[in-house]
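Um, can you check?
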Amino acid sequence: MKGSAHLDWVLGLIIFLFGFILAISYVKQSMSIEFPKEKIIASALEELEKELEKISIKVNVYKVATPEICVQNYPCEFKVKNLTNISVLNSTNNLQLVSYENGNLRMLVNWCERIKVVEVNESVIYPEGDAWITENSLGNGDLNITYNSTHIIEMKYKQKEFLIEPVNLTTTQIIERKSDSTQAKVVFDNLNLSVDSFSPRIWFFSQPKNITLNLKFFEKCYIGNTLYNCSSLTSIAKLSNLTALYNSSIGIAFIGNNLNVSLKNNFNQSIAIALENVEKFEIYFIKGNYTLAINESKAFNYTCKLMPYIIYNPISYQKLSSQGISLENFNYRIEIENLTFGEPIPLLTDIYRKELYMLIFNQGILNTTKLELWVWK
């Protein structure tokens, strides 16, 4: 009986001590956790969002509607007043060539892509074109046009000369020369001549006039939707949206709206092409046959449209990178784009991690990005 009573007392003491240890452990655990996980993250995010609101900006995004014609680096032109800091982006957020002056917005884009115009009261980066102009020539990486106050002297594409003799522009003086990222332009007294960046294209804008170009001989002549062997022609005249002269590898096309075109074969030595009473037309240089100029011809008679804008309030990368962020009463680390704020992440403590998806504006580009936040006490 005494042994049994002693055993009961020992078992009771063990149960009591075990319960006491559990109680102390529970109290310690309760004291060590000041906030539940959900509350500490919610508090930190609330502070962070307040910080980010201070550096958000308003951005207007316009959509550009283009006809379903695949032309590359083709101009879209708009009359739009009071725009500020414009950038133009394609569907993969690559910056496109753009110029904006005195309410005239001009951009070179690929019409098959989705295009948007971003307007923001913050500095943006503009890509540079390759169009250039000097006192007696203009061009781009593929084109070189030499001129004076009355004539086009030379017209080269891929370093190949197309003219037999200078082209009389029926002008008397040069008023202005200018260039921007989209084009180089020379303004005569009654004619504008321009070259687009990264494009085998020359634009003529004038008062109604007759222009004749005496060109080197080509094997094929496409005029008025009919293909001819140039050597079989003596002369021909038609209304045409697209007239093309070409050999097996290279050629030239004249594009406009119902151009009154006359073509004359000079003994298979040269071809004279005359355009009567024209106000606007395009010279387009081609690799291969006339089919490469068909889309250019279709695009000539269509215009782009600028759709109403959507307003965003993204985070400004420029302002974000120049300001610190503070989360009171918490240790934290924030990573967004290539920016880092806060402390290094410790190894031995409870850390709470959260991802936030947000819009950020960076150097003209509006993009979705991910903010990663680590918080600990």
About this structure: Confidence is low (pLDDT under 50) at residues 25-31. Helices lie at 2-32, 37-53, 294-300, 317-322. Residues 15 and 39 are 37 Å apart (CA to CA). The first strand starts at residue 59 and ends at 65.
